[in-house]
Amino acid sequence: MQSKITILDVNVDIVTMNNAIERIESFILAGHSRFIATANAEMVMLAQTDNELRDILNTADLVVPDGAGVVWAGRYLGAEVPERVAGYDLTQKLLERAARSGYTVFLLGAGPGIVNKAKNEAERKFPGIQIVGTQDGFFSPMDEPKIIEAIRSLQPDILLVALGVPKQEKWIYLNKNYLKVPVSIGVGGTFDVMAGTVRRAPLWMQKIHLEWFFRFLMQPSRFMRILRLPQFVIKVLAVKKVRQNNRDIL
Questions:
Q1: Cβ neighbours for 17, distance < 8 A, ≥ 6 positions apart
Q2: Where are the domains of the chain?
Q3: Residue 222 in contact with residue 189, Cβ under 8 Å?
Q4: Tens-digit pLDDT profile for residues 70-116
Q5: How far is 79 from 193, CA to CA, in rounded Å?
């Protein structure tokens, strides 16, 4: 069975939510430094012009299909992508598994106060969770060595990094070998949702793939980011057409 699909030069793993959790847990148990990315259409479009981001994603140990657009693109390009593995949901299930199995967690990123609210929510929702440290994302380059050393000394099993795309992916890639954390994941706005400062789309909108529209209604400033979605669709359609033309020539 095909294990990956290449979508606009970004390799995405073909996994279910359960597959992803199982693989992440195997990474934790192995103890090596692993990097997980949650790829949506916006991230894939950023990788079209950011070669560093594209190369980082293509060296990641697991890239889950976060976003209806990526799932659609994978299926349209011929892969049996079973479902969306949303980054927020993946984080919640991973925290649940961590509470049950005793894995330790460090939260890095989001605004001042937000990360601690996210910690409190995780502790409320997942009794027994061991969050060994937090750090908001508003730190200077001068503070960074001290923060990295603190994370390294605490030896968490899981590092959740909410610095926004592509900063969080680049930060993890640059520091993961020194940090020696078994699993590091870029989680975007997850802490804001956990803290209650950002609302997630109602379930019915998630099910009909309109979560992006809900985010736009809540944050109209996202308009330019939303424009990447039709650009993504157009580029995927073009790739499929080129492939069909090449087959016709052969």
A1: 83, 85, 89, 90, 93
A2: 4-189+204-249
A3: no
A4: 999 999 999 999 999 999 999 999 999 999 999 999 999 998 899 99
A5: 31
Taking the C-alpha atoms of residue 69 and residue 213, their distance in angstroms, rounded to an integer, is 13
- Calculate the dihedral angle through the C-alpha atoms of 133, 137, 139, 142, rounding to the nearest 10 degrees: 80
Superfamily of domain covering 4-189+204-249: PrpR receptor domain-like (3.40.50.10660)
Count Cβ atoms within 10 A of the Cβ of residue 232 and give its class: 0-12 exposed, 13-18 middle, 19 or more buried.
buried
The tens digit of pLDDT for each residue in 143-195 reads 999 999 999 999 999 999 999 999 999 999 999 999 999 999 999 999 999 99
Phi and psi (nearest 5°) for 130? -105, 90
